[in-house]
Amino acid sequence: MTIEQHKNVDSVEANGLQSLQEPFIQQGKGAVGACKDVESNTTVQNGSIGMVLLSTFIAVCGSFSFGTCVGYSAPTQAAIREDLNLSLAEFSMFGSLVTIGAMLGAITSGPITDFIGRKGAMRMSTGFCLTGWLAVFFSEDSYTLDMGRFFTGYGIGVISFVVPVYIAEIAPKNLRGGLATTNQLMIVIGSSVSFLIGSVLSWRQLALAGLVPCISLLIGLWFIPESPRWLAKVGLKNDFQVALRRLRGKDVDISQEADEILDYIETLQSLPKTKLLDLFQFKHVRSVVIGVGLMVCQQSVGINGIGFYTAETFVAAGLSSGKIGTIAYACVQVPFTVVGAILMDKSGRRPLIMKAFEFLMMPCKTSGTFLGCFITGIAFFLKDQSLLLGWVPILAVAGVLIYIAAFSIGMGPVPWVIMSEIFPIHMKGTAGSLVVLVNWLGAWVVSYTFNFLMSWSSPCTLLLYAGFSLLTILFVAKLVPETKGKTLEEIQACINS
């Protein structure tokens, strides 16, 4: 993935923030020890989860829309440049504008989500996405194209926050982890679907296809309840009771859960209010360094360059068409994201970054992203030197597939999980805003510069990303604690020791 404000950036639902971009774990209870845990373990044992499942399914239509937007530029680069006569610089701007819009969306998502509610924020963000896709479809020049890309970027920036928060707030405790996983999974599936259908549809048709999940979300929002926590927070007690009963079932006693939610919100709002400068107090500095550093590392390995422009990368490596490689990329991305979800609480966070895809690397105990970039860089080096030309496309495709498999397991989800664990509960809102801003800023830098770097020297560009992969391993080894199986208090004690 992604952040908050209105009734104060740090008072946006702590539980929602804990689950933000944290679909693969279930948090320890520690950080909310002072605040009662909001759901009891038995809340839905005798109730209906049908409305919870329906609400989650509708909400993740937004996540799917997020993925289709991110994946749009990869299969369409050559066709858009040819049809609209765009220069490399103009298309790079188009491709990267989604991240600029997403930065603004992420920054403003907190106030918007608190002011107009979770459903209201989803409606608003979907409106931006619809407008953006239509602008792309009707565009005849780079200006309209860029405006469309920016609008879709802003929409997914808001979606990146509100969808996981909404899911976390409506789900019972015993289902939250599994349901939250669907957010990240649907982003990846959406991206992969764009890759796949983009190989058979024109770029204008693919833009129209992007409208489908947006329209599905808009229609679906009429049939699901607002977040009970938001309703309680803004003082709509009657609506709060009605929404909670719809989610839990008409025959379920919701009195205990309702009391716990109200107590939780009251306690949360009594916590100290924080400002951005508070993050740089000595006791929080290491957490900030870890959170920001992981996001810098995540982007510096080149994911948004390789992901945004996959098809052209394969063509540059000598494939007659980027379609086969792009389809393979899409088919690898989804299952390895699932593998990462399964391994998150089994192997721990640090091993997934440092040894992701290690079984392909034999004695080389280092990151799979390094291996993937290194192999792809070697492929371009051989091409430049006119050596083993028959092997170049094979090595390039293999390197990119290894890279995306390793990234999907390790550097993709793990930084978000660790980010959600390392900050004190009353700092999560402010810290989340900073970390997400850094992530989107890094995404813009990489996506904008990738084509220029590849034009300068393809081997050096890929080897540069390989070098950053090694630096990531060093950073994790020296500074990032293992958080698997620890309560949030234990993590804080480890960081501050």
Automatic annotation (TrEMBL):
The keyword Transmembrane helix applies. GO terms for molecular function: sugar transmembrane transporter activity. It is found in: Membrane. Belongs to the major facilitator superfamily. Sugar transporter (TC 2.A.1.1) family. It comes from Cajanus cajan. This is Sugar transporter ERD6-like 16. The keyword tRNA-binding does not apply. It comes from the Eukaryota. The chain crosses the membrane at residues 52-74, 86-108, 120-138, 150-168, 180-200, 206-224, 285-306, 326-344, 356-382, 388-410, 431-450, 462-480.
